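ASSEMBLY PREDICTION REQUEST
Request ID: AP-0331
Submitted by: J.K., bench scientist
Number of chains: two
Total residues: 610
Priority: normal
Notes: Please return the full assembly, not individual chains.
Input sequences:
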Amino acid sequence: MKKYLRMKIFVYLLTFVFAVTIDWLIPRLMPGNPILVLVSRFATLPESAKVVYSYLTKAFGLDLPMWKQYINFWIAFFKGDLGISIYLYPKPVLDVLKSALPYSLGVLIPSILASWFVGNTLGAVAARRKRLDSVMLPVMYFITGAPYLWLGILLAYFFGVVLRWFPIAGAYSFALRPHLSWLFISDYLKHWVLPFLSLFIVQLGGWAIGMRNMVIYELEANYVRYLETLGVSRKLIRKYAFRNAILPQVTGLALQLGTVIAGQVTTEVVFSYPGIGYILTQAILNQDYFLIQGCFLFIIIGVLIANFTVDLVYMALDPRIRYSYGGEI
Amino acid sequence: MMREILFFAFRNKKLRIGFSLVLFFLILAIIGPYISKYKDPLEYVGPGYQPPSKDYWLGTTTFGQDVFTQLVHGLRSSFFIGFFGGGLATLIGLVVGFLAGYEGGLFDEVLMMITNILLVIPTLALLIIVASYLPYRGIFIESVIIGLTAWPWTARAVRAQTLSLKAREYVNLTRITGRSHLKIILYEIMPNMMSYVFMVFILQFGGAILAAVGLDFIGLGPTKGISIGLMLQNAVLWNAIQLGIWWWAIPPGLVITLIVGALYFMNTGLDEVFNPRLREM
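STATUS: Completed
Returned structure:
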């Protein structure tokens, strides 16, 4: 068990170093000088533009040798300094991302958990009802095939434009400022429903299909046959099958994370929802490379934390890992 | 053997439905640009905001471009990316999986370490950071980038299968005859995994199409030409939803959903064809 954890932590640390290195390296190979973009705002004053240019190059440390820039990048990272946003100049990247993070997590975490529970339940039920299964399965396949952003567009069109039930832009009304009151909370929830639903629905399909297949597979297993010959009740057998079938679904949670985050990014753009994904697209459009780097790091750290949590949950659920550790990870 | 598989393939309803849908859109992508009235998908051919009609089969955009023409051209790039991006990802996954599984040892450890690292990093994050570094992108480059980032899960699955096949007697026998490792992999192990490889390719095909839509949508798509993701991006940027121009915002995504859903459906059907235990009797 300790070896299992040690191995996992080692892979995660390596992943982290690799990700940070990529994060540092690629923007430096990126064409287009972001400082020129920034300086162009002073275009009417050529003299001061020159001063601003040399000042900014120094401030961002772009005139240093590469290896020094790399070391500085790590030092700055541990100090929590991710640079200054060019698009939202002079706001520090960390502040921009910190204020965006709650909005992203507020949609992401509930949608992942809710769709996991509902999807697995649906799948387990469908596995033993043939009639329901033959209707549900095709629907679920097409749901998983839908791009997140398109489902967002569809929901926005029907519930936002045709029926006018929910607002389709932003995380709260423009007239409000974020504060703790019933007025703000209910307004926030109204804006939250559609982005949540579009993530929830697309993920649902995958979980339901996976669980259905796993339960059907488990119900064919030898231990189930054995229990049947012993005359154990169907209910108890199903309980055992379900417990075994749930394990790959927990691992799937970690594997699924990448696609869900990608979906979250595009969904936020559809709803102009001020989370990390929306910030990231703005950063791309404005060639704001500190901000792109920051978003990338936030996503990586989030994914690593989530993966580690899944590992811990898996250890709690599967006694085989707790008692011994062998084979492959 | 082949005839038996074909027999079950034609009898399988899932496979039939999935395959006909994909085939329909493939044909539409091939002949669409010839049957549409307008040649250039970006040309301004009429008044804007036109709902679907006889002149504009799927209506026009805000600027008066023909949505149907854009859709069929976009479909072409989608299939192209699915084919090349998905193909490349499958190929890399196979090579890494076979080598890691068959050679074992340090080689295996290193390859699997790289695979596990790439598996944790979200593909889109990698795509963003690589794609934003290229100022001019075509759909070929896009499919290469997608192919280079989508292979890890395939490599892991292929490695696991290779490990189990490697221990079989007939492989041991071949090893005694002194055949090279490459030949053993190609002639003894791979043929037994052909059905699996084909199914992996279908999944990668769908995955590449979806990845491209996401990438185009956030502004990292091809810098020239048109694609489904770019159509959706433009529709959202120009408030097609708020203005109620559903014919611009909804059909492109619907087509993608149908294609990818049909691919997944086909995959389940194929699983039943290749795996007698799953066949519905």
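REVIEWER COMMENTS: Chain B has a mean pLDDT of 85.
SIGN-OFF: pending second reviewer
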